[in-house]
Design a protein that fits this description.
There is one protein chain. The protein has 114 residues and is of the alpha+beta class. The protein has one domain (12-107). The chain is built from 2 helices and 3 strands, in the order E-E-H-E-H. The chain has helices spanning 36-57, 86-107, and strands at residues 12-19, 25-33, 75-80. A 3-stranded antiparallel beta sheet has the order 2-1-3, with helices on both faces. The longest helix has 22 residues, at 36-57. The radius of gyration is 15 Å and the shape is globular.
Length: 114
């Protein structure tokens, strides 16, 4: 039996986010997957590992730089987008990243120093 998804399953771009209770994004990433189960392993799990690594390295603070919610209150969220490929999603993802960078610049936070 193959681990590959059936050919009739449409892949989508999934976004994983680490969010404080006020839904301020601490970190986020995106990737392609054919199912939520695949997206957990391919998108969400690597983000969890990266957030922990950034915390250990001191490249992000252990609190939300906007509302000061501590790390213990952060949650991870995984969602499927309308996009079928990263190439298709790239312009929207880049716009979102630019908006987040502007917010960080205005508010003076450390997120994204990595």
């Amino acid at each position: 039996m193959s681990d590959r998804p059936p050919t009739n399953v449409m892949r989508r771009v999934w976004i994983a986010q680490c969010l404080c209770p006020a839904r301020h994004a601490i970190a986020a990433t995106a990737g392609e997957a054919a199912s939520e189960a695949e997206a957990v392993g391919a998108v969400e799990r690597p983000l969890r590992i990266e957030v922990e690594a950034m915390l250990r390295a001191g490249t992000i603070d252990p609190w939300c730089d906007i509302c000061r919610a501590p790390r213990a209150l952060w949650a991870f969220e995984l969602g499927r987008t309308k996009f079928t490929t990263m190439a298709e999603a790239r312009p929207a993802l880049e716009r979102s990243a630019d908006e987040q960078a502007l917010t960080r610049a205005v508010l003076g936070g450390s997120q994204g120093r990595a």
